[in-house]
Amino acid sequence: MEEEYIDLKELFLVVIEYFWTIVFATVIGACGMYLASQTLMSKKFNSTTKIYVLNQQDAQMLTYSDLQTGSQLTKDYADLVKSRTVANQVIADLDLSNSYPDMKGITPEQVAGMITVNIQQDTRILQITVTDTDPVRAQAIANAVRVAASTHISKVMNIKSVNVIDYANLPDHPSKPRTTRLVLIGALIGMFLSAGSVILRHILDDTVKTPDDVEKHLGLSVLASIPYDEIVDTHAKKRKKKRKA
Questions:
Q1: How many beta carbons lie within 10 A of that of residue 2, not counting itself?
Q2: Which of 13, 46, 50, 156 has the CA that lies 20 to 30 A from 168?
């Protein structure tokens, strides 16, 4: 029994034959993902504030060893920023449950889930980012988290001071959904699905269409072929219709 093989050149020609179909599917995938990102996905805004933690009694005597020790503690600071104490303080300071209908009954865990803390390498700088559907509220919560976290870190870690590097910004554009990335993903999905279906249909199609197919599938040589005449076929169809009439 002869082994079946896939002719890459033949597959390439099939893809070229259905080129515009694949292009159309690619455009449909991109447009569909764009519409989904604009209508089905809620917009998220990021507001960021930065603080610097200083645990030396005299800032002028700060050494490299002290800096290394302090940078190792920043992970502890990050955990304190997302602690229940800080979240409860933010809820109380901004009266989130009563001031915003969509935050009715908000829990400390939900507030902590809105907070992301990034630590700049080999520094004591903490970048606190709050993600919310309302840009103004995101800014307010970020500033409230900074104030509450600074007080909490100072008490727990016996820190001399927590200084503000940047106050929270008011975001002017959403961070999510990332429309450009989603459109690209949608286009790739449409392209691969359409190209894959065309190739799969061609591979699974074992019908005989050309003399080469006879030799390939049946192992027989074609002695002769009868050309197809559209005019004769048209006349035959007309005569058939007349007989039925």
A1: 6
A2: 156
pLDDT at 162: 84
Q: Same structural domain for residues 62 and 148?
A: yes
Name the token pair of 212. Answer: 């080469």
Asked if residue 222 and residue 135 are part of one domain, the reply reads no
Spatial contact of 29 and 190, defined as CB atoms under 8 Å apart: yes
Give me the pLDDT at residue 227, please: 66
The CA distance from 207 to 215, in Å, is 12
Q: Per-residue pLDDT tens for 142-160?
A: 999 999 999 998 888 877 7
CA dihedral 101, 107, 113, 114 (to 10 degrees): 30
Phi, psi of 127, deg, nearest 5 = -100, 115
- Determine the average pLDDT of the residues in 192-221: 74
Dist CA 129 CA 118 (whole Å) = 8
Whole-structure pTM over 0.70, yes or no? no
What H or E segment, with its residue span, contains residue 53? Answer: strand 45-54
- Of the candidates 163, 107, 168, which has an alpha carbon nearest to the alpha carbon of residue 137? 168
- Give residue 32's domain range: 1-41+177-205
Do 37 and 5 share a structural domain? yes
Question: Is there a cis peptide before residue 177, judged by omega within 30 degrees of 0?
Answer: yes
Same domain assignment for residues 131 and 238: no
Q: Are residues 51 and 113 in the same domain?
A: yes
